[in-house]
Amino acid sequence: MGSAVLIEAIHAIRDFSVAKEKEAVPVRTSDAFGNLVFNDEVQQARLPKLVYHALRRTMTHGEPLDPSAADAVAKAMKEWAVEHGATHYTHWFQPLTGITAEKHDSFLQLTNEGKAVAEFSGKELIKGEPDASSFPSGGMRSTFEARGYTAWDPTSPPWLLYSGGAVTLVIPTAFVSWTGEALDKKTPLLRSMEAVSKQAVRVLKLFGSTAERVFATCGPEQEYFLIDRNFYFARPDSRLQGQSLYEARRNMGRELAREAPAEADIVISLPDSGTPAAVGFAEASGIPYSEGLIKSRYITRTFIQPNQRLRNIGIKLKFNPLREILEGKRVVLVDDSIVRGTTSRKIVEELRRAGTKAVHFRVSSPPIQWPCFMGIDIASRSELIASGRSVEEVERLIGADTLKYLSKAGLFRAVKNVSGFCMACFDGDYPVPVPVQLEMDKLALETVAR
Fold it and tell me: Residue 378 pLDDT more than 50?
């Protein structure tokens, strides 16, 4: 008996198909594509005009679907499915098990006269109630707490599944617990898309757009070369705009040594991004280069941490000064940029504790005074240490004996080919108009309003 059931199950899996017939039937692909989907074309043909527009508003604007409109949609969907031979419908969802799941019901309902009629209501279309007893609760719970609900996702059109001679109407749904927790992989996606839409519309309105909703299909694409971002993140052996990134950074150090010389015993870098410029500074100044800071390879970028406490912890773990190299020395410390000043201030403190006689801070870029709205993680001008402050004020804040930046002209001389690069973070001249009052909360797209 068991073997017969197993064989039958194997045959059912083998015969599983979304095609109605196995035999080759001459048909154009363009005609066959989507012909088993309750798509926009079918909806327009079968739904009353007012109901169709109500459904479209639900799909495009997220408006609730009126119960009477839901009944009309369910009736049209049922009639379309029955015409194709469907006898059952299923709410189809993607639970956290990593596979799909289905809850099947029949269109057929028994009447008092003992007859069967095909029925399908808006309530049955919109919501189902599969078992969610496997959802963890951490302890004892009442029976009703094990309930899970499937909710129709109107942005995904239903379709017909042909399998083993039977036809089933498949309704894509989300799956949540009775308290609203996501029990599937689709609900977080839908909530994320809603959060992205909300925040994107907020930004678009600052540009005068009248958009009411934004549909996220993929991540935003960086369209501009951001000179500090590319030179900060890219590999030293990269080539940008036909030139070696390492050589461009070293040239910045050379220009910096000419513009802002210092009396010092050694040149050190804030590794790794400041190393090529420090080498260039040493070459042009004649001051020997040495490794004075050892960087941990297990701590990631600190300036993108979400709060100051985490940034401070990261810096302390990330860089270790070499006392035997630094003690009693006048030091030129070269970095590629100063953003918030968190790293710079902490590094200067560590160098002082290591016994340095003087710390001359040199930066191989102009002061960053404007936020980037096109890719780098800076929320507002108020977070930038150089914004609204003189070089002397920043010097006092980070605790260095002297502080000098590379000028914009020096940067141009070092990079040589500057066409196509964006300098907005240095001068506020954005490649597209950006309202001055635009203050992006960097966590805005990670927050879902409840």
Answer: yes
Q: Quote the pTM value.
A: 0.47
List of E strands, 80-145: 88-93, 101-106, 108-110, 116-118, 127-128
Question: Dihedral of CA 346/352/353/354: which sign?
Answer: positive
**CA–CA separation, 68 vs 50, rounded Å?**
11
Question: What sign for the dihedral angle of Cα 358, 361, 362, 366?
Answer: negative
Half-sphere exposure of 68 (CA within 13 A, CB side): 3
- For residues 340 and 303, is the Cβ–Cβ distance under 8 A? yes
Read off the amino acid at residue 111.
Answer: T
Q: What is the pLDDT of residues 358-377, one digit of tens each?
A: 999 999 999 999 887 766 65
Cα-based distances in Å from 28 to 8, 32, 159, 163, 282: 34, 6, 20, 22, 71
How are beta strands 88-93 and 166-177 bridged, if at all? parallel
| CA–CA separation, 188 and 93 (whole Å) | 13
d(Cα 40, Cα 59) in Å, to the nearest integer? Answer: 11
State percent of the chain over pLDDT 70: 71
Q: Exposed, middle or buried, 65 (CB in 10 Å: 0-12/13-18/19+)?
A: buried
pLDDT interval class at 209 (50, 70, 90): confident
Q: Are 234 and 258 in contact (CB under 8 A)?
A: no
pLDDT at residue number 444: 43
